[in-house]
Amino acid sequence: MQFRQQALAKLQSPEDLDLPVRFARPQGWLVLSVTVVAMAAASVWALTGSVTSTVGAPAVLTYGQGSYVLQSPVAGQVTAVLAKEGARLPANAPVLKVRTGEGDEVVRTLDAGRVTALAASTGQIISTGANVAAVEKVAGAGARSARRCTSPPGAPPASPRTPPST
């Protein structure tokens, strides 16, 4: 009980009323002031700052079906380039004409797609398996070009010819 008596005596004595009350040590005030400054800076940034939502990066956009490199099945001299870069071609479309020892051969696409690069040019000598074009597979590439070739826009679809009956 001795401690309690000293605390009560200290509270009742009027001699310490003129002294300021000490709430925290100087280290505590330092921590408090740093925290207040950090919160103020965060509040200012939250109201006026911004975060960039787009990023610029070099890239190549492709279709989900992928792409393939078209290789020549024959060796010879390229006599004609039948496709242009950027052209959409149906499956089995002619890309090059190659003159071989047995005659002219046509190099054709494997799947429908868009020609992204042509590595062969007219007059060039190519060997069997040489890369001649890069083709990006595109769904419906052949349907569009076939529709364009067979009938004008707005015309009804062409029907197969039937021999006249007698």
TrEMBL record:
Xref: InterPro entries: Single_hybrid_motif
Positions of the UniProt region annotated as Disordered: 142-166
Transmembrane segments: 29-48
Biased composition (Pro residues): 153-166
Protein's UniProt keywords contain Transmembrane helix: yes
Keywords on record: Membrane, Transmembrane, Transmembrane helix
Protein name listed in UniProt: HlyD family efflux transporter periplasmic adaptor subunit
Naturally occurring in which organism (per UniProt): Streptomyces haneummycinicus
